[in-house]
Design a protein that fits this description.
The structure holds 2 protein chains of 2 kinds. By secondary structure, chain A is of the alpha/beta class. Chain A contains 4 helices and 15 strands. Chain A has 2 domains: 87 residues, Transcription Regulator spoIIAA (2-Layer Sandwich), CATH 3.30.750; 111 residues, Pectate Lyase C-like, CATH 2.160.20.70. In chain A, strands 5-7-9-11-14-15 form a 6-stranded mixed beta sheet, with no helix packed on it. Chain A has a 5-stranded mixed beta sheet with strand order 6-8-10-12-13, with no helix packed on it. In chain A, strands 1-2-3-4 form a 4-stranded mixed beta sheet. Chain B contains 11 helices and 9 strands. The chains are: A alpha/beta, B alpha/beta.
């Protein structure tokens, strides 16, 4: 008999979902979707561990699987894999709690690329429209920030966003959301910092004190 | 051993197929042997733009599936010495071919031709992965529109992630007049976001519509502005140092937005 691509298994740590590492990824997604749909209420709210075996997942594939689980109200607590790179990709993306660590990204973040990190994030390059950063702590962009940045994503309203050129599509700090005001021709070429002050996101020149 | 270039864009309708047809023709006119590969399986266009539709007997999928030999599927363009087309299948879809098969096919073509130009379908799915698989270099085509540039940025990211070198950029359908009045993104506006090497700028040219309908690439026509730009781009692909004429520009369209409102 053909092996099932997606196996659900109960264990002491909650539900374990084993994804066959030989099958085609699209097939896995299809099968996973079907299984979740057919047993929607049964799994709802469960903590699950995704076991991807030998398969090396890309960041996007991890995201696809997590999204799928989340849509069916499954709480993905862990991704285990025989490939340590896959595991690292999976954990780097999850903002569970804030850490003091800082992630340094040495490239421009292009449309469709995103970074999620529990600590601070520093980008050596630009953040283009369509790209997104979510950080538990501060975000520093050594270039132009044109995409979406969410600092203090775990609720830290003291967090700030700094960029050499601050032109974001949208800024979020903690639970505050800011979008650009009407067109502003008097653009600043100096580095700026965005912080929460008196209940709104406020942008000012960056003064190092 | 030749070189394989994929022409891609993400967004549809920005001129990938037109670019492939014109660059291929221009490269062949310069004495190179060139094969154009239509990787847009199921929605083939390149044969129509080249005016070779009525000569298709076998196609790319037939070759990959072993129904015919590669030589039988290649259509020789009689107008230009050394130019061939490998058409896509129209009755199948992107899943009829996988990246490994494309790699093998492109390798075989590279042995026979100086340049293999791959016409990539729009989108970022299977068809895109197939088109990228055998290529050494990628050329991204965009138009001076925010949506096209956004998609180009996404594609550049995906090309880099697939271990190809950072692609070069062709800006198509540029209208110097509109840029001058601040109604269109300028070259600088686009390069500021994409930060890649500019391979060429092709002006908007009504003759492209005529040439597409006639099935005769614009580079074969001496008075076409777009055709002249494509010839320059072909020279740059061959490694020649041809300057890119920059139309006079004033302030670009993209106005920087700074002040933010806050809301819970």
């Amino acid at each position: 008999m053909k092996r099932d691509e997606v196996v659900f298994k109960g264990s002491k740590d909650g539900l374990q979902v084993i994804l066959d590492d030989q099958a085609d990824f699209d097939q896995i997604v299809q099968r996973f979707t079907k299984r979740l749909q057919s047993a929607d209420y049964f799994f709802r709210g469960a903590d699950v561990t995704l076991d991807t075996g030998e398969r090396e997942l890309t960041e996007e594939q991890v995201l696809v699987l997590e999204d799928l689980a989340r849509r069916h109200r499954l709480n993905v607590v862990k991704v285990v894999s025989k490939s340590s790179r896959t595991e690292r990709k999976a954990t780097a993306r999850r903002v569970v709690e804030t850490t003091d660590e800082t992630l340094l990204h040495r490239k421009t973040l292009r449309s469709g690329q995103n970074i999620e990190f529990a600590g601070n994030v520093v980008i050596l390059g630009d953040v283009n429209p369509g790209a997104q950063i979510r950080a538990g702590g501060d975000i520093v962009v050594m270039g132009t920030l044109r995409g979406v940045a969410h600092a203090g994503a775990t609720g830290n309203e003291e967090a700030c966003v700094v960029a050499l050129h601050l032109r974001p599509t949208q800024l979020r700090i903690g639970s505050f959301i800011g979008r650009p005001a009407e067109e502003d021709e008097t653009r600043s070429i100096a580095p700026e910092v965005a912080r929460v002050k008196n209940g709104t996101i406020f942008i000012e020149h960056l003064h190092i004190s | 051993m030749g070189e394989a270039l994929v022409i891609t864009s993400g967004k549809g309708g920005v001129g990938k197929t037109t670019t492939v047809a014109n660059l291929g023709t221009a490269l062949a006119k310069r004495g190179n042997t060139v094969v154009l590969v239509d990787a847009d399986i199921g929605l083939r266009n390149l044969d129509v733009v080249m005016g070779l539709e009525n000569r298709i007997v076998y196609d790319l999928v037939d070759v990959v599936e072993g129904y015919c030999r590669l030589r039988q599927a290649l259509i020789r363009d009689k107008r230009v010495e050394g130019l061939c087309l490998l058409p896509a299948a129209q009755t199948r879809d992107k899943n009829a071919v996988n990246p490994e098969q494309m790699v093998a096919l492109i390798e075989e073509l590279k042995e026979q031709f100086d340049y293999v130009l791959i016409d990539c379908p729009a989108g970022i799915e299977q068809g895109f992965r197939n088109a990228l698989a055998g290529a050494q270099r990628a050329v991204v085509v965009t138009t001076p529109e925010v949506s096209a540039v956004r998609d180009a940025d996404r594609i550049i990211g995906l090309v880099e992630a697939s271990q190809l070198p950072t692609p070069t950029l062709v800006i198509n359908r540029m209208r110097a007049n509109m840029v001058k009045h601040g109604d269109m993104m300028s070259i600088d506006d686009i390069l500021e976001v994409l930060a890649v090497e500019l391979l060429g700028v092709v002006p908007e040219d009504d003759y492209i519509v005529v040439s597409t309908n006639k099935g005769e690439p614009a580079v074969l026509h001496n008075n076409s502005k777009a055709g002249l730009s494509y010839r320059d781009i072909a020279s740059r692909i061959m490694g020649e140092d041809v300057p890119i004429p920059v139309p006079a520009e004033s302030e670009g369209l993209i106005v920087r937005l700074r002040r933010m409102f806050g809301s819970r």
